[in-house]
Fold this sequence. Notes:
The protein is an all-alpha fold. 86% of the residues lie in helices and 0% in strands. It is built from six helices and no strands. Residues 15-101, 118-203 form the PhoU domain.
Amino acid sequence: xxxxxxxxxxxxxxxxxxxxxxxxxxxxxxxxxxxxxxxxxxxxxxxxxxxxxxxxxxxxxxxxxxxxxxxxxxxxxxxxxxxxxxxxxxxxxxxxxxxxxxxxxxxxxxxxxxxxxxxxxxxxxxxxxxxxxxxxxxxxxxxxxxxxxxxxxxxxxxxxxxxxxxxxxxxxxxxxxxxxxxxxxxxxxxxxxxxxxxxxxxxxxxxxxxxxxxxxx
Length: 217
């Protein structure tokens, strides 16, 4: 019973971390789209340190739970899964910081193209992240599978962003630096989607014991 309560608290801490990461992603995109420097600075100055503390705390708790309670079977798999998601969220946080840094550059420059496709990528990445965490909490493999399917939309939007920017860079060298930052934003969104798929694939393995790694590549 004690371990069960500890696991519930552990998962709740992970949810808090995931919510922070999701809010960071949403804020970084809104900062870019609405050209709001305050939101971008808030990510760097306040949210990133909080995220780092979550990552360290979750890793520490997981290690202590394994050492103190000697969990087996599903309890052990759950702890290992939280540790894995914790690592994925930390990497997602790094990608959000990359987006934020590029956004700080971009909002200071004239806009060279509409951000519609990047906005769509952002919405899709946020949904995939949220759904992958919910799939873990609910042990919902149907939702996890849906996250994997949604990756193709993100990939196509990424290609479209590049297709739109290449002619601009060719026609006007002055747009190259701005274009490269936009591509960086899109690439980091694509990586966030990929990490959400990692989480979803691990959920499928946790619940069904079925390995689906690399199935969607």
